[in-house]
Amino acid sequence: MIFANGKLLPDSERRAVIDSLEEQINTVRMGEPLGAETVIAAVDALGKRLAAGEFDGLLGQFLPAGVTLDDLLPLLSRETIEAKLHAELGEAPFEGRKFEKTTARILPLGTLLHIAPGNMPGLPVYTALEGLLTGNVNLIKLPHADKGLSLAAFRLLAEQEPRLAPYLYAFDLPSKDREDLQALADLADGIVTWGGDGAIRAARALAGAGCKLMEWGHRLSFAYLSGCEDKDAELSALADHIIETGQRLCSSCQVIFLDTDSREEGETFCREFLPYLEAAAAKRPGLSGGAQATLSGHTALLERIVEGKTGGETLYRGRGCSVLFRPDGELELSPMEGNVLVKCLPQGDLLPTLRRQKGRLQTAGLICAPGKREQLTALLAGAGLTRITRPGAMSASFPGEGHDGEYSLRRYIRIVDIES
Fold it and tell me: What is the pTM of this model?
């Protein structure tokens, strides 16, 4: 299916829609600009209808296990969207700013192609809303894992506010379909790409010389433990986070680093933490995946055995989860699904070690004694982390937050200087 002109259409019409897009986009961009208030009012109204239960049947059809309406509603409120807009672009950003003999106006970049990921439900809608807020026409390549959620959301949004329809197009387009993907890229003033190194390289190949590329690549996050403030509460919160996210998000904990060079302390921590992880998995069996979590951990271990990389490792198997101690201090992706890595990384080695992953760092969940927090926060920030949180809030959203160290809306606009 595709979404175009405010309607869901069969994929057989994709080529005809793409062929007509240049003319349609030009017509839209020559007309009345899309105001941020129009977008905010529509999203807020739709959020209130969701909260009233109007679309419970639809949500039940599309939302994956573990994702609830409570997870979505905060992103669909006027207060949240206005806070984001003002934090990133300032108060009244589209009214123009007067300077001597000059007025600076903020205008849309133009047309954005969003190559959306599938690691978080609703993310294609979120990236499109960022484009709408800044007045852009948005072409969205949906991920294979979307299963219709975003198409349904776009249809509801266009029904709520028909003025949004000409600014939204979505395509359930296979990545291997280079011809249609290139045709969409050729229409874009900017490409917004989410994904790993392969996706970034593919987007760079699509972008023409005059096309701006906005890369929101995969990131790695971890917990850093140097003492505790409230050990039981902090380890419980970290375990809950690991299970709740399935370690699939850029902000998910992949490795728990310990501020020590003692293997004995590392092994002791693994044995201590495993019951917390088991308790979290038992509370949320649908999220931890049970057999799937166990299979993921065992598969990852078997792969390393085949590759001869298991020297010095110790696996602590739990019910629906595992803790794997590795003797190296490198940041890497875990087996996920409730299978977390534990490594020793003394403070003195932290910055040079993390610098080897520069450009891929995101969130650190910091657990430490109160007197160490300021110093360790500065150390982690200096190493390249863009979010430093308490252990249970690694994937939480909050007003005014950046995106991988940037304000994303600023990348979707251009400044036009007009002489008085």
Answer: 0.84
